[in-house]
From TrEMBL:
The Acyl-ACP thioesterase N-terminal hotdog domain, residue ranges: 141-275
Keywords, comma-separated and alphabetical: Chloroplast, Fatty acid biosynthesis, Fatty acid metabolism, Hydrolase, Lipid biosynthesis, Lipid metabolism, Plastid, Transit peptide
Domain Acyl-ACP-thioesterase N-terminal: 1-129
PANTHER family: OLEOYL-ACYL CARRIER PROTEIN THIOESTERASE 1, CHLOROPLASTIC, PALMITOYL-ACYL CARRIER PROTEIN THIOESTERASE, CHLOROPLASTIC
Taxonomic classification: Eukaryota, Viridiplantae, Streptophyta, Embryophyta, Tracheophyta
Annotated localization: Plastid, Chloroplast
UniProt record similarity statement: Belongs to the acyl-ACP thioesterase family.
Protein name according to UniProt: Acyl-[acyl-carrier-protein] hydrolase
Coiled-coil spans in chain: none
Region (Disordered): 39-86
């Protein structure tokens, strides 16, 4: 009873059971004897005591509220202690930990994708020269550069065109000068040459093609220079298959200096010779000089003539004259179609007589000299004479070409090809 009273004092919650008992006892008071009332009252008190104990447990789980605040429980104290702190500049900043976690997740996913990529080179040549920029080899005397044959560089025979090979030769020649640190503002001119308005011009080119590369092949081009007489320079090229080392093309050329302003030939100044002399090698040419005199060719002796050839703006180089590679294409314009369909160009000798300007109109003349049908050592070899001239009659390029039948694995050396050097 004392415990119930004390609990009721701190937790003044009316008991529904006691209220109902009180009301019932109040109603029966005038008709039931007093003794029974006392006995029932005693039972009611005992029941109220037990119900009061149950109320203490219930109230311990759900304490009352006064003005919306819990009273008499530890939970209310905890709630008051965990109230949010006042808003300041610091606690208004974003949750940087969430942002850093998101960035870290993105980087980890990107790194995983990066590692899944196969960056291993598919060809060994990519390890040597991955960007095709070339490099100096053999004690600084030879320049080497790799070229991949593109789909737009092959012709109807599914092999690289002769113009593509000639462009590779020209590119390596210029890159050789550049990598040697001698390239100035001119097109292959050294600093001393630029001071004197001098440029290099080719006078003779000899090319021998043993095999044409195909689409996807990688060719390795080596080039070097040597002295030629007192006022000339010789440049040689050796083209190999970068995977097998097989020799594909050999070429030799002769160059002289010309004044860019007067368009006249010039001697090599001593200052220029001092720049380039240390790069000359003492070696014989890769292609022996074909000194046979080219016969005169005109409209009366030529069998095939193509007229009305004019250079385009894209055919000019930085020296404002037609690029020498373009001459090769013009020469082949007059080659007989039956030869182009059944034969491939195996070698050529070109002699450059004068330059072609952008307003020139040219003619291409070709004559078949020897069809070679009766030559048992070189069956099917055809030789042609060519002339590229202005319509007024001035000679631009004279040439001789040799053709071999297509789809022949290997015919062997012909003409005056040199023995392969080690």
């Amino acid at each position: 009873m004392v415990a119930t009273a004390a609990t009721s004092a701190f937790l003044p919650i009316p008991s529904p059971a006691s209220d109902s008992v009180g009301k019932t006892s109040g109603k029966v008071v005038g008709s039931i004897p007093a003794a029974s009332i006392d006995a029932r009252a005693t039972n009611a008190k005992s029941k109220s005591t037990s119900s009061g104990r149950l109320q203490v447990k219930a109230n311990a789980q759900a304490p009352p509220k006064v003005n919306g605040t819990k009273v008499g429980s530890m939970e209310s104290l905890k709630t008051e202690d965990m109230s949010p702190p006042p808003r300041t500049f610091i606690n208004q900043l974003p949750d940087w930990s969430m942002l850093l976690a998101a960035i870290t997740t993105i980087f980890l996913a990107a790194e995983k994708q990066w590692m899944m990529l196969d960056w291993k080179p598919k060809r060994t040549d990519m390890l040597v020269d991955p960007f095709g920029l070339g490099r100096i080899v053999q004690d600084g005397f030879v320049f080497r550069q790799n070229f991949s044959i593109r789909s737009y560089e092959i012709g109807a025979d599914r092999t690289a065109s002769v113009e593509t090979l000639m462009n590779h030769l020209q590119e390596t020649a210029l890159n050789h000068v550049k990598n040697a640190g001698l390239l100035a503002d001119g097109f292959g001119s050294t600093p001393e040459m630029c001071k004197r308005n001098l440029i290099w011009v080719v006078t003779k080119m000899q090319v021998v093609v043993d095999r044409y590369p195909t689409w996807g092949d990688v060719v390795q081009v080596d080039t070097w220079v040597a002295a030629s007489g007192k006022n000339g320079m010789r440049r040689d090229w050796l083209v190999r298959d970068s995977n097998t080392g097989e020799i594909l093309t050999r070429a030799s050329s002769l160059w002289v200096m010309m004044n860019k302003e007067t368009r006249r030939l010039s001697k090599i100044p001593d200052e220029v010779r001092g720049e380039i002399g240390s790069y000359f090698v003492d070696s014989p040419p890769l292609v022996d000089d074909d000194s046979r005199k080219l016969p005169k060719l005109d409209e009366n002796t030529a069998e095939h003539i193509r007229t009305g050839l004019t250079p385009r703006w894209g055919d000019l180089d930085v020296n404002q004259h037609v690029n020498n590679v373009k001459y090769v294409g013009w020469i082949l314009e007059s080659a007989p179609l039956e030869i182009l369909e059944t034969h491939e160009l195996a070698g050529m000798t070109l002699e450059y007589r004068r330059e072609c300007m952008r307003d020139s109109v040219l003619q291409s003349l070709t004559s078949i000299v020897d069809e070679g049908s009766g030559d048992s050592s070189h069956p099917g070899i055809v030789e042609c004479q060519h002339l590229l001239r202005l319509e007024g009659g001035g000679e631009i390029v004279k040439g001789r070409t040799k053709w071999r039948p297509k789809f022949v694995d290997k015919i062997g050396s012909f003409g005056q090809l040199p023995h392969e050097n080690a």
